[in-house]
Amino acid sequence: MNKKVFITDGLYELLEYVKEQRAIDFNAYRPSTIKRRLELRFSASGMPDYASYHNYIRENPKELDLLMDVLTIKVSYFFRNPLVFEVLSNIVLPELLETHRNDVLRIWCAGCARGEEAYSIAILLKEITAKEGSSQQIFIIGTDIDKEVLKDAREAVYNSDSLLEVKKRHLDEYFISKDGLYRVKDEIKSMVSFAYHDVTTLTTPKEGIFSDYHLILCRNAIIYFDRDLSDRVLKGFAGFIQSNGYLTVGETESLSAHIAGNFQEVMPGIKIFKKS
Predict the structure, then answer these.
(1) How far is the CA of 222 from the CAs of 84, 164, 171, 228, 229, in angstroms?
(2) Torsion (CA) 179, 183, 186, 191 in degrees, nearest 10
């Protein structure tokens, strides 16, 4: 593997060690992001440089967990960017349910963090199918490279900060409140499965069984990749989406020209794209 020009030997060797231990290649992430997050651990551990920190992390295995915690991005909450979910609720999901009513509706939330997005989608689908009296088969999978946040996703217990965009009727109907925390009800939990998966492998999650999806959401994850990797990941997603299926990305993310040619924007400014 060729070293990238912006990565010093010490940093390259440190990231290669992380790759060996956790099977995640951070060499392809934006160097400014990686360096800024590493500095947090340098400060906390008292290490002055990459080589010193590399030795420290070898001698203190628990530090690797702390490093993974700062390198992986977990900021999320229910119905993040509400307008996106309004479009999903009013246009995208009803269309997909109608079009694929004789099939299993397949949805993949990539980079799902603690599961807020996947459960938000499940709540919308529960509401739509209940209103229509539909018994549509639905498969939702959330994936992430951080196994610890996946444990939290499966627990489905959240504090009030994660629920600021949740409508009161959804809060009352789909959550159980206790001791200042909120647990997602089993009827919603049962709609979603979670699995470890690295999107940079350019594969679909093996736990999903399926090789194609009707809707893929990967929001606010690829912005941490360099341009080449983000394009390859998005091209991979494009290949995993059925014709007339949908791809949703973060509000600061975009499709490059050779990918965008196969998609149409559902609504200007809302990063939801329909595959031609």
Answers:
(1) 18, 25, 30, 11, 8
(2) 180
Task: Look over the chain and give the mean of its residue pLDDT values, rounded to a whole number.
Answer: 90
Q: CATH 3.40.50.150 in the chain, residues?
A: 82-275
Question: Which value, to the nearest 10 degrees, does the dihedral of the CA atoms of residues 172, 177, 180, 186 take?
Answer: -110
Residue type, 175: F
CB 128 within 8 A of CB 89: yes
* Res. 74: pLDDT tops 70: no
Q: Is the pLDDT score of 6 beyond 60?
A: no
- What is the distance between the alpha carbons of residues 203 and 237, in angstroms, rounded to a whole number? 9
Q: How far apart are CA 266 and CA 88, in angstroms?
A: 10
Q: Decide: pTM greater than 0.85.
A: no
The verdict on domain 82-275 having CATH code 3.60.15.10 is: no
Q: How many CB atoms lie within 10 A of CB 96?
A: 25
- The answer to whether the beta carbons of residues 54 and 48 sit under 8 Å apart is no
Closest by alpha carbon to 218, among 124, 107, 141, 112? 112
